[in-house]
Write a structure and sequence with these properties.
Strand 3, helix 1 and strand 4 form a beta-alpha-beta unit. Helix 1 packs parallel to helix 2 and helix 6 crosses helix 7. By secondary structure, the chain is α/β, with parallel strands linked by helices. It has a single domain, classed as TIM Barrel. The strands form three sheets. An eight-stranded parallel barrel has the order 3-4-6-9-10-11-12-13, surrounded by five helices. Strands 1-2 form a two-stranded antiparallel sheet. A two-stranded parallel ribbon has the order 7-8. It is globular, with a radius of gyration of 19 Å.
């Protein structure tokens, strides 16, 4: 019998996962231009639930229309979005998978035509994007409230957890990084000031999000650019807010074009550092592809959960396949049991 931590249960607040395997948020760019769930999303996510993924984090879901990465992103800016998301949640939960939603605002990386884009400072990400308007303090309050309302709707839809997207060069990351934030008010300058927007979003969400349900953030632990964020900055930031969150999903990059040395598990070191220095659970992600790699990460306490993105796009039944390959007994849908009886 193989001893495995990857296929052990994991508890965070009232959410019990059947294993440590996570499907991270990956945009499908498949919604209509009003942001509604459709048949593609139902097939895409439920197949991973059937495949025995422990936790699915639904793709970046915009809290306002001009917070979309593309015109075909999912949305949660209106109560009419709740019904489709609820059906998706119920289908996946029915198969034993817990569901989280990533609340997002694209900021200056909004790719929707004919909308006004906003950012902490008025300069574009690249010539492929429009020059954003510098967001005003009143507009900041409106966005904070949009995240709050998005969290309320996510709870009504039945999600088990929410993830605040503070990574990959989108609006919250833009406030955090001195690469994109050149403000001279209380939202710019020092790291404490640049963290203010994120903190106010978290505080606002917690007014409506149930105390028993976990909430976490996704961060870019390194901008890979001179003058940008480094992991020590993210450690300081998390230590400043960790009493208000339950976990950190650790990624990197995205604030501007940068040379990144990508290799298997290239971001795990950041997860390990944050876990050790902030005493908070983490999710590791980044070119994680097989059982041995995943088990090493979990067993050596480099993270609490592992997220497999591209690998789960290639193989929705990865947990079943890897368990079979290693001779690990797991529960699978009875409709598929004949597949493991050789």
């Amino acid at each position: 019998m193989i001893n495995t931590m990857l296929f052990e249960k994991y508890n965070i607040k009232n959410m019990e996962l059947k294993n440590r395997i996570v499907m991270p948020p990956m945009c499908m760019y498949t919604a209509d231009n009003q942001g509604y769930v459709n048949d593609w999303h139902m097939t895409h996510y439920t197949s991973r639930a059937i495949g025995q993924v422990g936790l699915i984090i639904v793709e970046a879901t915009a809290v306002v229309p001009n917070g979309r990465i593309s015109a075909n992103d999912l949305g949660i800016w209106d109560d009419s979005h709740i019904n489709g998301l609820s059906k998706l949640v119920n289908e996946c939960q029915d198969k034993g998978t817990k569901m989280a939603l990533q609340l997002a605002h694209a900021g200056r990386k909004c790719g929707v035509n004919e909308v006004e884009t906003v950012a902490p400072s008025s300069f574009d990400f690249s010539d492929k994007y429009s020059v954003p308007k510098e967001i005003t303090k009143d507009e900041i309050k409106n966005v904070i409230n949009a995240f709050k309302e998005g969290a309320r709707r996510a709870d009504e839809a039945g999600f088990d957890a929410i993830e605040i997207h503070a990574a990959h060069g989108y609006l919250i990351h833009e406030f955090l990084s001195p690469i994109a934030n050149k403000r001279n008010d209380e939202y710019g300058g020092s790291l404490e000031n640049r963290t203010r927007f994120l903190k106010e979003i978290i505080y606002s969400i917690k007014e409506v999000w149930p105390k028993e349900k976990p909430i976490w953030i996704r961060v870019s632990a390194d901008d890979y650019l001179e003058g940008g964020l480094e992991v020590k900055d993210i450690v300081d930031m998390i230590n400043n807010i960790k009493e208000h969150i339950d976990m950190v999903h650790v990624s990197s990059g995205g604030i501007d074009i940068a040379d990144i040395n990508v290799y298997p598990g290239y971001q795990v070191k950041y997860s390990e550092t944050i876990k050790e220095k902030c005493y908070i659970p983490t999710i590791a992600v980044g070119w994680i592809t097989n059982y041995e790699q995943s088990e090493e990460i979990i067993s050596n306490h480099r993270s609490d959960l592992v997220a497999l993105g591209r690998e789960l796009l290639r193989n929705p039944y990865w947990p079943i396949h890897e368990a079979m390959r290693k001779g690990i007994k797991i529960s699978i849908p009875e409709q598929y049991e004949r597949a493991i009886k050789l």
